[in-house]
Amino acid sequence: MKKSLSFLMMLVLVIGMLAACGPQREAQPENTDKDNGTGDNQAEEPKPEKLVVWEDTDKGIALKPAIESFEKEYGIKVEFKELGMADKIRDQLRLDGPAGNAPDVVTLPHDQIGQVVTEGLLQEIKVDDSVLDTFTESSISAQMYDGKLYGLPKATETPVFIYNKALMEKAPETMDELYTQAKELTTGGQYGFLALFDNFYFAHGPIAGMGGYVFNEKDGALDREDVGLNNEGAVEGAEFIKKWYSEGLFPKGIIGESGGAAMDGLFNEGKAASVMNGPWALQGMKDAGIDVGVSVMPKLSNGEPVKTFMGVKGWNVTAFTKNPYWATKLVEHITNEENAKIRFEKTQEIPPVKSLIEDPVIADNEAAKAVAEQSQYAVPMPNIPEMAEVWGPMASALQTIATGKAEPKAALDDAVKTIKTNIETNHPAK
User: Fold this and answer.
1) Distance between CA atoms of 212 and 237, rounded to whole angstroms?
2) Using CA atoms, how far apart are residues 201 and 308, in angstroms rounded to an integer?
3) Which residues of 122-132 are buried (b: 16+ CB within 10 A; e: fewer)?
4) With bands split at pLDDT 50, 70 and 90, how would you rate the model's confidence at 429?
5) Quick one: pLDDT band at residue 10, thresholds 50, 70, 90?
6) SS3 breakdown of the chain: % helix, strand, coil, rounded to 5?
7) Neighbouring residues of 180: CB distance < 8 A, sequence distance ≥ 6
8) CB–CB of 102/96 below 8 Å?
9) To 10 degrees, what angle do helices 232-246 and 391-402 make?
10) What is the mean pLDDT of the chain?
11) Which pTM value belongs to this model?
12) Spatial separation of the C-alpha atoms in residues 252 and 227, rounded to whole Å
């Protein structure tokens, strides 16, 4: 009797276990699509009543159409106000964030990202690869810090080759060709080519094109320990810079803080056939009555492009938003192809959107096309905090080279030594 009862109980237990594993108990897949902007799981993310954006001064005219289409598509109200992008937005975010008054989205120059992330003001965003593929690789890398993405790019700028069509028929294809032309055109207060090569922002072009670099990349992040500003390529680039000064092809007046104004004055007076300058200078040139031509920088003697520094303005999600998913969706929306094109038409800011480079709106605009093409060769300014220690020592080195007070190798060795010392002192390793 006991054996029969035990067998019956065992049979009931087995049936119960099988029932628990039956199809009526099939577990629902866990939702793993909650990360900021990953996927399109709108039903799982409550919509906020509104989002707040801080835009750059005088650029709201380009943001309004993007906001209107976002509101229509998603039913979320978006408010914005304009602040100076270079400093006001960052400084105000430092105050308003902890006070609970921060916006959801801000626009910042990419070279501030490292510092504001370190201060805890921005948060990482995650978007589909299809979104990332919309933009040029360099503009996306500019929005990265320590291997993580902190925004999407809205506009890019970089120095290009600008020439006076009355003095130079067309842009030369190589710097060697330009050098020859400059020697022929430089006489009696007239100059063939001018550049602010004592300023590292501009000097980076030939130095990097010859093989120098600021910080090498390691495991998807910039390595502050690996500074390449006195390697063989960097010295070659500095030698190239030196000859323009030592051979009298550049006037002494364009060295130092007043150099930019002096160079602009010479070009706008018709005393310089060509310059290396940014798109920000074009309006002044046109106002002066100069018929300008704009092109990518001529290639270096090693066949490499002049690797100019590039600045990228981006849209970033703040660390203080209560709606990171929808803030990311807004960033995706205002940087898409349609809205990037509208922004260019209204502000002339060059979008780093690959499909627009060949679009007639840019392809038929000589200056915009030149900036877009040059941006493909350009290097985003390093956005790690340690970059602050590079500008001063490199400016000093370049000025001693330009004035003949030091040879390139010695000047760059001193600069790198100072840079590394300052990094160790001001940015202790974690």
Assistant:
1) 8
2) 8
3) bbbbebeeebe
4) confident
5) very low
6) 45, 20, 35
7) none
8) yes
9) 50
10) 90
11) 0.84
12) 30
| C-alpha separations of 236 from 175, 274, 359 in Å | 14, 23, 37
The answer to whether 63 touches 55, Cβ cutoff 8 Å, is yes
Is 90 exceeded by the pLDDT of residue 2?
no
DSSP string over 57-105 = TT-HHHHHHHHHHHHHHH--EEEEEEE-TTTHHHHHHHHHHHHT---SE
Say what the pLDDT of residue 44 is: 63
CA atoms within 13 A on the CB side of 270: 8
Which residues, 6+ apart, have CB-to-CB distance to 120 below 8 Å? 319
Q: Residue 85: is its pLDDT beyond 80?
A: yes
Give the pLDDT mean for 304-321. Answer: 97
**292-295 and 160-164 beta bridge pairing:** antiparallel
Task: Determine the 3-state secondary structure of 53 from DSSP.
Answer: strand
DSSP helix/strand/coil, 140 = helix
Q: Is 254 exposed, middle or buried (0-12, 13-18, 19+ CB in 10 A)?
A: buried
In which band, very low, low, confident or very high, does the pLDDT at 8 lie, cut at 50, 70 and 90? very low
* pLDDT higher than 90, residue 292: yes
Residue keyed to tokens 């006489």: 187
Residue 281: phi and psi, rounded to 5, are: -90, -10
Q: What CA–CA distance (Å, rounded) separates 304 from 377?
A: 9
How does residue 40 score in pLDDT terms, banded at 50, 70 and 90? low
Q: What is the CA radius of gyration of the chain?
A: 28
Q: What is the distance between the terminal CA atoms of the chain, rounded to a whole angstrom?
A: 74
What are the structure tokens assigned to 34, written together?
A: 């909650």
* Residues sharing a CB contact under 8 Å with residue 118, sequence separation 6 or more, in sequence order: 385
